[in-house]
Amino acid sequence: MPSVFKEGLLEKRSDGLLQLWKKKHCVLTEDGPHHGGGDTGKVKELHFANMKTVDCVERKGKYVYFTVVMTEGKEIDFRCPQDEGWNAEITLQMVQYKNRQAILAVKSTRQKQQLLVVQMPGQKTVRSSPNVA
Questions:
Q1: Interval 10-31: pLDDT, tens
Q2: Which InterPro entries does the UniProt entry name for this protein (predicted)?
């Protein structure tokens, strides 16, 4: 089970015609936010790998409204009480996730480059060395 950074209620705007706000029990883990649909027990996961940004943060009355933009362009609207800080925590964890992925990509590239330099058994190394005749 991934580490849990934050857990509690978050409201998600429905995709329907009326666009009603529905309370969801959310858990923010190192993979991204997960929210359940009340009594149905259905859990929806938003993986940081599929998230582009947290956008349109706006404070109105007692709520903070924000939009999670997915890489395929889908936008998901959320709101929470101002003192809950879900938008900031999701943004922080998403940035840390993207940084970890970038570090892994650099390490992977360096390992591949190092493997190319390793001399294969029984073959000559192709390095700039003086030719001995």
A1: 999 998 888 899 999 888 888 7
A2: PHLA1/2/3
Pull the structure tokens for residue 44: 């929806």
Query: Count of residues for the chain?
Result: 133
Residues with Cβ within 8 Å of 3's Cβ and at least 6 positions away in sequence, in order, are 29, 30
- Cα 94 to its chain centre, rounded Å, is 4
Q: Encode burial over 64-92: b for 16+ CB neighbours within 10 A, e otherwise.
A: bbbbbeeeeeeebbbbbeeebebbeebbe
Q: Which residues contact 65 (CB under 8 A, 6 or more apart)?
A: 56, 57, 58, 59, 77, 78, 79
C-alpha–C-alpha distance, residues 116 and 118, integer Å: 6
- The pTM assigned to this predicted structure is 0.73
* Helical spans, DSSP H, in 70-122: 86-117
